[in-house]
Description:
The protein has helices at 2-19, 37-51, 96-106, 128-137, 229-243, and strands at 24-32, 54-60, 83-89, 112-116, 139-144, 148-154, 168-174, 177-182, 187-194, 199-209, 212-217. By secondary structure, the protein is α/β, with parallel strands linked by helices. The chain has a domain at 22-138 and 204-243: 3-Layer(aba) Sandwich (Rossmann fold). The protein has a 9-stranded mixed beta sheet with strand order 2-1-3-4-11-10-9-6-7. Strands 5-8 form a two-stranded antiparallel sheet.
Amino acid sequence: MKLISLFLGLFLLASCQSSAPKKLKVLQLAGGCCHDYPMQMGALEKKFEASANCEVTTFIEGTNRTHKHSKLLKPNWSDGYDVILMSFCYGHVKDDAYIMNIVDEASKNNKGLVFLHCSLHNFRSTQKGTNAWRELLGLTSKGHEKKETLVCENTAENHPIMKGFPQAKEFPVEEVYIITKVHVNTKELGSAFGKKTQKFHPVIWTSEYNGCKVFGTSIGHSNVTYTDADFLNLVSRGLQWTAGTLEN
């Protein structure tokens, strides 16, 4: 009887372990000028691991706009990950082959893709690579307005990513990115009014590229934003949406 009980216990333990939800493997890549990437990626890592059942690996490199991230120079660097999050400010890299390899590698195998803030101005100094990068993100931007309070309007309150996000949310030290092109697969989820341009610009969006779901936000300049619960929830829900694990 004791032996039967032991086998039954082991069977139940194995069943529980096999039915446990698989952790999302998330790769965070960050670096370049102008932002406190260790603080910002650290805040997201804690949020993802606590609320989205994620195992997060983070690589941060470089302090200028011309740096080439060494992780991105390796073959098959995206293998083994479910979601890739990029927060870059390498705007002056002029290497089409390098940029095209990043676009191709990031978008293979139907991974989720998340892009934050200065990624919109990343790889902007060439032609072929720049165009491909912008297609991957789903928006084109060539500049931003000055740092001040940004009011984000929730323009897609029925979208699962925007559940719980306020109808109008203030971020005190942010930049409205000036959007000059919305690409064909892109859907706006949130917008902000630019005082200089006197028009609304998308600041939260989704897109699709080569079978990959894309989530992006141009919000995310200051460390204050990464202590804001609404922002952290937004990015966490966006990440889960790209991976197909977000529950309504």
